Structure formats: C-alpha cells, structure tokens
C-alpha cells in the first residue's frame, strides 16, 4: 500500500510596506546626513530646469521659454500676478554675460537728433572746430599704427638686445642706453605724425571759400547734427561742384558762351565727422543721407555724390606700410555713402 504523498506548501513571505512612503528620491537621499548638501543642490537644479507648461503647448514655429499670454482667453488674476512677478524678477536680473544685449532705453529718454545747415558764422566756426578736432585725433591713430607695427617693433627689440649684449656688465649704463633708445623711438613716431596738427590748424573759414580761380562764388555747405538743439555732435562739409553748360546755337569754335550751373553738377563731401563720444550712434549715417538729399534736390536726381579725393579725414602722412587702418576707414566711409545713395533711390521708387 502506497504511502500518501504529503505536499508541504512553502510559507509565503510577506513584505511590510508600512515603511514605504511616496517620497521622492531626493528626500530619501536627504535622509543620509552626508548627502544633504547634494540633495539641496539637486532640488535647486530641478527648480531651475523646469520648463513652463506654456512653452510645451506653444504652437509657434520657434519654442519660447518664457510665459506668454494668449488673446483668445482671459488669464486668471492669480496667474497674471504670478506672471507679473516673474517678469519683474527677470527685469531686475543682470545680463548673464558681457555679450548679452543691453537693456532697452525708453523712447522718452532718447534725445531727438536735429540736422540742419549751419548758416551763421558762429555755427560754421563750431562745425569747423569739430572737424579740426577729428583731424587732430587722427594723429593718435597714426601713432598707434607706427608704435605697434611689427617692423619698427622688431627693429626696437633688436636694438635693445644688442644693447644688452654690449652693456650687460654695467646695469646703470644698460638702463641709460635703453631709456635713450626708447625715447628716440617715441620721438621718431611723434615726428612722423606731427603733420596732422598742421592740417588741423589749417581748417578755418578760408577753407570753405571757393577757389580764387573759380567763377562760382557759392561757399561750401556745412551740415550739423545736434541732440535737442544743444551741443553739436556731427558735421559735414558739402561742396556742390557746378556743371559747365554751353549757350548759343553756333557750333563754330569760340562762338558759344559757357556758364556754370548747379543743375547737372555733383556733390563732393570734403569733410565728415562725428564727435568722439557720440560715434557708433548712426549720426554719420544721417549726415550722409542729408548730403545726398541736398545734392539730389539742387543738382538733379541723377547727380552723383562722392568723397573728395583728398578730403579732410583721408589725409595719410605716413609711409604706405602704416596706412592700413586709414584705408579700412576709407572703405567703410565709401560703403556708408553708397548705402545712403541706395536708400535715397529706393525711397524715390516707393513714392
């Protein structure tokens, strides 16, 4: 008789879940004393990396990461208050990097720029003084071009090394000779650039008068730019070169008379500058646009406008190897004038 088989059921192990709570992993990490600091950092990082729901539901082609309002629904007062506080918080935050865009200046704080022709003697003298200062400032740029050019710097370094090899046994003699050499180098740069001072002093009222052999008696036009009608911040000297027209129907040589007229003439910019503290604000661009407008009005819509071959701001007194920075300035000025002419033509076509 077979013995009945007894099946022993294994005891089921029950887990006590009373100690489990729906805490986050950060809370459980915080339970360890040594990791509390790391948990605080993770909490801070989590709070700053959460994307607002509005960004996830945006239908714009480019996602936005700031709160945005919709015109199709009226926001709840509490959400509006939170949005206002959020925007105020961000407006008080400083830029994150030096390359960040500076805060916008309110339109009421931007002074109005006025362009006008300088007619009185005092106004013309003020404009010429501004141009003279700009020419004198070119000496500083020329001096930097020579001082930091690789060729003269290499010569100076070689001379100093030679002095060191010859007088290294006598420190006092080495110091004296090196000082004399450096001073001589600076004096040579000063001598090469001193002509800019003479050019600056030559810009006076007589500079605006027509040439003695010219039959056209009109003086050059001086344009000025002011902020709120106060201090002059920009000046431009425009010479309207007349065209020669022949009167009389006879074609025989000497039977026709010639006279000068602005109709069909050209506009020549003889000087163009902006005050040093106001450069980069678009003042020069506005002056060029005004010069183009005056030329087109008085000489005809087909009149050409350009810089004089040797205008006040283009004189180069240094050898050619040092004039790279001045050539770049000339190229930028020519492009700015071309842009002003193109803008005037585009405006006329739209009309």
How is this structure best summarized?
Keywords: Membrane, Transmembrane, Transmembrane helix. With about 350 residues, the protein is of the alpha+beta class.
Keywords:
351 residues; alpha+beta; five-stranded mixed sheet; 10 helices; elongated; disordered N terminus
Describe the 3D structure:
- The chain is α+β, with helices and mostly antiparallel strands and 351 residues long.
- The protein contains 10 helices and 5 strands.
- It has helices at 25-30, 36-49, 53-56, 77-92, 121-147, 150-167, 171-193, 195-201, 283-299, 324-350, and strands at residues 113-117, 221-227, 232-247, 257-274, 305-307.
- The protein has a 5-stranded mixed beta sheet, sandwiched between helices.
- Strand 4, helix 9 (283-299) and strand 5 (305-307) form a beta-alpha-beta unit.
- The longest helix is centred in the middle third of the chain and has 27 residues, at 121-147.
- Residues 217-301 form the N-acetyltransferase domain.
Strand percent estimate: 5-15%
Number of continuous helical runs: 10
The whole-angstrom Rg is 38 Å
Low-confidence stretches: 1-15, 49-102
Organism: Sarocladium strictum
Protein name: N-acetyltransferase domain-containing protein
Transmembrane segments: 146-164, 176-193
InterPro entries: Acyl_CoA_acyltransferase, GNAT_dom
